[in-house]
Design brief:
alpha/beta, Hypothetical protein af1432, 5-stranded parallel beta sheet, 15 helices
Length: about 375
């Protein structure tokens, strides 16, 4: 209940003092706290300071009739849910219809009977209290559902990252490639969000960070003799290696069939399939060029190449940061989206710091 006590507060509004006195006696005898007012404006001002639990409202009053008072209650965000019962000597059906259309819940005709007034007041107070309890329960339920969804989401992301790292564990030299590239993607996306790439929203940044670990998930389908070959791949072996993009995308598409509107899964498919596409159209698997390549794939491409250049692989020694940056600058506009390359150039020192911090540290799951 509202107010400073546990008693329900019933507000009575009537320009006839005798009616106010009669209603006050009836209601106080039943244990209600009563706030009585002879004018609508006074009642509205008082209700704004201390909202009642229910209002008994006369229709025919000077200055502001009951319909206008009811309308103002309903227009006030803090008062609109308070039940209003009209009381009037008018026995005009049109007036009763208007009373309900203005937001009144019930109508008591004067001269009123004590039993009728108490029955209607008690009924609507109980209904109002039940409604508030239901709303409170629904709110608590929504909070619980949101909490559980968040728990499930965190669990799923941890599982996805763990599965993605299975490929990494097949090649000890790649170290913490998964964590590094997802961080690179995030800082590139954040930088690009402050450029004409206006479609980069906070949701995009969050999704690319969590979807980035999926980019090489298709390598679980590549034989070890190709994936771990210390020398240069033969043309046939390279064609097999290239299929990791489509293997990964097809695997994720099966998940999308169940969750077609999931932005995270859709981004995972896009960057998994397209992170080896090149700006000039010479990449694989689809030979896309320019902005035909999904933005997530263009960002992932640069992050992946920088990390590959810096890391030791079965077929190469690690390159120093300066050489990796030089290669990326030279390939801007051919391999890489020029805007993504420009963002990288402004972030070179952050890339170097991130790589150094995560190169040899303990292998943890960063969500």
């Amino acid at each position: 209940m509202t107010g400073n006590t546990e008693k329900p507060i019933v507000m009575t509004v009537d320009d006839t003092p005798a009616n106010l006195e009669l209603l006050q006696g009836i209601l106080q005898k039943q244990g209600y706290e009563v706030a009585a007012f002879p004018r609508g404006a006074m009642a509205l001002k008082a209700a704004a300071k201390n909202p009642p639990d229910l209002v008994l409202l006369d229709i025919m009053m000077p200055e502001m009739d009951g319909f206008e008072v009811c309308r103002r209650f309903k227009d006030h965000p803090e008062l609109k849910e308070i039940p209003i019962l009209f009381i009037s000597a008018l026995d005009d059906p049109a007036k009763k219809i208007r009373a309900f259309s203005e937001g009144g819940l019930d109508y008591v005709t004067k001269p009123f009977q004590e039993e009728e007034v108490l029955a209607r007041v008690n009924t609507h107070l109980c209904l109002h209290q039940a409604k508030k309890e239901l709303e409170r329960h629904n709110h608590d339920l929504e909070d619980l559902v949101e909490e559980k969804v968040e728990e499930i989401s965190d669990s799923q992301l941890a599982t996805i990252l763990a599965v993605s790292k299975l490929t990494e564990y097949r090649d000890d030299d790649t170290g913490r490639h998964i964590e590094r590239t997802q961080t690179f993607c995030k800082i590139l996306a954040q930088k690009l969000s402050n450029t004409p790439y206006t479609d980069i929203s906070p949701e995009f940044i969050d999704n690319i960070y969590h979807a980035a670990p999926l980019h090489d998930i298709g390598k679980v389908g590549i034989p070890d003799n190709i994936l771990l070959k210390p020398g240069k791949l033969t043309p046939d072996q390279f064609e097999t290696m290239k299929t990791h993009t489509t293997i990964g995308a097809k695997t994720l598409q099966q998940v999308r069939n169940r969750y077609p509107g999931n932005a995270f899964i859709n981004m995972g498919i896009a960057l998994t399939r397209s992170h080896h596409e090149k700006w000039d159209g010479t990449g694989y698997p689809d030979g896309l060029a320019g902005k035909e390549i999904p933005l997530s794939g263009r960002i992932m491409a640069l992050a992946d190449v920088y990390d590959a250049l810096r890391a030791a692989r079965p077929y190469k020694k690690p390159f120093p940061h300066e050489k990796a940056c030089r290669i990326i600058r030279e390939d801007a506009g051919t391999h890489f989206d020029p805007a993504v390359a420009e963002a990288f150039i402004s972030l070179e020192s952050e890339f170097e710091t991130c790589y150094a911090r995560m190169a040899n540290g303990p292998d943890r799951l960063h969500l």
